[in-house]
Structures are given as C-alpha cells and as structure tokens.
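Private note to self, pasted from the team thread so I don't lose it. Backbone tokens:
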C-alpha cells in the first residue's frame, strides 16, 4: 500500500499569521519538513479508517495499524521527548454489513504492546453532529442507533508528559461540562456561523470535522503559551484557529484543496 498520495511535492504554504502557517500537501511531506524535537502537541483527527475500508471479515484491519504507525513515526521525530499526540478516532461501519469495525482499538493495542508509546488517558466526545455514514441503518432500516461518540487517545513517549487540568476547569464554552474525561464540547456544527460566513454549504463531504472547542481543550490542557502545536490532517483548520485563540504557535496541513480553501478563509476572517 502506498502511503504517499501526492508524491514528494513539498507541502505549500497557503496562509500565515504571526503565530503559524497553513500548508496544503501530504501529511508525510509536511511532517518531514518540520524541525526535529520542536513540537509540544500534535492534535489531529486522521482519516478514521485510513485508506483501508475495513469489512465484516476484517474488523480489526491490520493495514490501518500499518498506516497509522507510519504517521506516528513521523510525529515522533518532530515531538519534544515528553510531547503529546492526541488522536481523535473512532470505530466505523463495515462496508459490507451492518456491523462495526474496531481498527482504532486494534492499532492502539498493537502500539502499546510494542512498549514505545504510553496511553496517558482516553477521552469520549459526545458529538451528536458526527458523520452520517450510518444513515442506511439508522434512517432507512431502523436497525441501528446513531453513532455519536468518538474517542480521543492521548499518547506520549513519556509517562510524565506535562499537563495542567486547572487550565481546562470552567472551559470557555457554554456547551462544555466538566465531566472528567467525558467531553461535551459542542458538536461538529458548532462553528456553523463561521462556516456560513466563509460561504460553505453543508454537504456529506464536510461532515468529518471537529469544532474549534475540541483542539482548544487539548491545547489548553497540554501546552503553555508560545509552544508549538501541529495538525497534519487539519481539514477546515479548527486546530489553527484554536492555537491562535490560545496564543500558541501552530503548523497545520491538509491534502484536500476544498478543505484548505475553507481553512484559509476561516483564518483570514479570524485575523480581521
Ligand atoms: C477526519 S478529517 C479531519 C478533519 C479536521 N479535524 C477538521 O476539523 O476539519 C481527515 C482529514 O485528513 C485529510 N487527509 C487524508 N489523507 C491525507 C494525507 N495523506 N495528507 C494530509 N491530509 C490527509 C482529509 O483531507 C481530511 O480533511
């Protein structure tokens, strides 16, 4: 399986502020261009199944673990030795039957067995605006419920990665409740006024995103002002906006021209 989608062409800078730069390109190429040991936090939501589309016969999809391992190795190079990676991921519906696949748990368990990363904590995000990929079962056949929780895995090479929970007490969002590791951080549609201002139309293609509140929560928990935050699969740029708000440096990237054009508009609007 090829891990490189757009060959070796460098990730192209498309917008920047005093704190960060937005790139358009492949995540591998983007990460390779960042200096070693320069990043405090990678917070990102990679493609949930990778290019593997697990089936009912292949619900743990080892190919997904290979795909994720590749990116974790690139992240490890740029991270400070006690830096953190926070991955939002979840199960998926098998492509052939109304059953679930657990490639994310399989990949995590394989990683932890190897002993070079620690799982510092997992978080559960209640996101009623989650992907509508199960509409076949939920809305037409009425035999499965809406899938509305995803997991965020906080990983580090160090069991002592710095964090300060006091910084997320009373988190600044009226929909957020301080329920420990259960996050009610508002849903995928919470930034809708922003997106409408940017001229975006609601469509299936733009559903797999997180609101600014999600990366902001982890940026506050795991970084100090001025530290460097990275999102290699940044979609429409919520991590960039969260880092701007929090006063952190940032580098964000996505391969999709459509997503990057929305991210660029959001960053430009934010700066005004
Ligand atoms: C789950 S979405 C992330 C959405 C993002 N968190 C947001 O709020 O918009 C996964 C993203 O990974 C991007 N992607 C997939 N393969 C990629 C690659 N090889 N390099 C960079 N981005 C990639 C997709 O374009 C998509 O925007």
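Design output:
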């Amino acid at each position: 399986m090829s891990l490189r989608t757009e060959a070796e062409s460098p990730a192209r800078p498309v917008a920047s502020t005093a704190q960060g730069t937005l790139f358009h390109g492949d995540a591998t190429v983007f990460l390779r261009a960042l200096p070693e040991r320069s990043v405090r936090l990678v917070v990102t939501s990679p493609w949930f199944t990778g290019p593997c589309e697990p089936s009912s016969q292949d619900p743990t999809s080892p190919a997904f673990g290979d795909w994720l391992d590749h990116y974790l190795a690139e992240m490890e190079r740029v991270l400070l030795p006690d830096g953190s990676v926070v991955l939002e991921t979840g199960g998926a519906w098998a492509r052939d039957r109304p059953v679930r696949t657990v490639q994310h748990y399989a990949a995590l368990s394989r990683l932890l067995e190897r002993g070079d990363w620690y799982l510092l904590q997992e978080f559960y995000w209640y996101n009623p605006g989650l992907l509508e990929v199960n509409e076949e079962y939920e809305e037409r056949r009425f035999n499965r419920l809406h899938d509305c929780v995803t997991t965020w895995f906080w990983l580090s090479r160090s069991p002592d990665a710095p964090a300060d929970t006091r910084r997320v007490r009373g988190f600044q969002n009226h929909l957020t409740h301080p329920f420990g590791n259960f996050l009610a951080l508002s849903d995928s549609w919470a930034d809708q006024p922003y997106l409408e201002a940017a001229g975006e139309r609601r469509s299936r293609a733009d559903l797999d995103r997180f609101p600014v509140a999600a990366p902001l929560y982890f940026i506050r928990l795991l970084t100090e002002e001025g530290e460097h935050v990275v999102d290699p699969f940044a979609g429409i740029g919520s991590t960039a906006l969260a880092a701007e708000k929090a006063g952190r440096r940032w580098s964000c990237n996505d391969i999709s021209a459509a997503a990057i054009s929305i991210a660029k508009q959001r960053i430009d609007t934010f700066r005004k």
